[in-house]
Each structure stands twice: as structure tokens, then as C-alpha cells.
Amino acid sequence: MRILLSRAGRALPVVAAAAALAAVTALPMATATATAAVASPVARAAVGDEAPYIVTVHKDVDPATVARMVGASPDYVYRTALHGFSARLSPGQVVALRVIPGVESVQEDGGVSSFGTAD
Predict the structure, then answer these.
(1) Which residues have CB under 8 Å from 90's CB, separation 6+?
(2) Model's pTM, two decimal places?
(3) Please, are residues 62 and 33 in contact by the beta-carbon 8 Å criterion?
(4) How many CB atoms lie within 10 A of CB 25?
(5) Distance (Å, rounded) from C-alpha 88 to C-alpha 54?
(6) Which of 1, 54, 96, 118 is 20 to 30 Å apart from 108, CA to CA?
(7) Tell me: the pLDDT tens digits for 86-118?
(8) 57, 50, 54: which is closest to 103 by C-alpha?
(9) Cα–Cα distance between 21 and 9 in angstroms, integer?
(10) CA 105 remoteness from chain centre
(11) What's the CA gap between 48 and 36, in Å, rounded?
């Protein structure tokens, strides 16, 4: 069975994406010279809405500055094996990080398991 959506229903994802992009473009760019924190960081969500993430950034970008830009409190800042930070992030913070120039990846941190034994 085929379901037809109204024009408003088809436009909703586009409007949501545009609103998220507009909110993030108001943030200062993440560069090596960016040291000022954002005046009004992304609102923190309830602890139950947050999940652990690992965020990697370009080598010329300060990971702690990027975390402050979205109101995140890093659990750890990585500067050796990878360049970035780990933190519990809300869905809004994840969206904001993914569009900041200089952010390479935003990946949910999860467990790793083995399905078999090594021979």
C-alpha cells in the first residue's frame, strides 16, 4: 500500500535540518585561534537523553574548545593516538558537532565483543 504525504509532511525533515543548520552556523568557527567560548552553548539535555560519544577533530583544532562550543564536558581529551575528546552528549549536541568545521567524526562509544575465539 502506498501512503501519500502532504506537502507539509514532506517538508518537515527539510525544515528541521535547516533549523539545526541555522542554529549551528551562529556558533563561532573551530580553528586553532578560536579560544572564546560560545556565549550561549547548546542546552544540556537530561542525563537520560545523553549517550557516550568519541569526537575526533583536525590536528590544528583544539578539542577542548570544540567541546565548549556545544556545552559539552569532556570525560577525556585525546591528543596522542587520536585528536579529539570523549563526552556524554545530547542529540542536539551531536547534530551541532557534525556541522562544525574541523570536526572529523562524531561516533557513539559502544562496547566491543568477540563472536568467536582466535585460532
Answers:
(1) 42, 43, 44, 45, 49, 50
(2) 0.56
(3) no
(4) 10
(5) 9
(6) 118
(7) 999 999 999 999 999 999 999 999 877 777 666
(8) 57
(9) 20
(10) 8
(11) 29
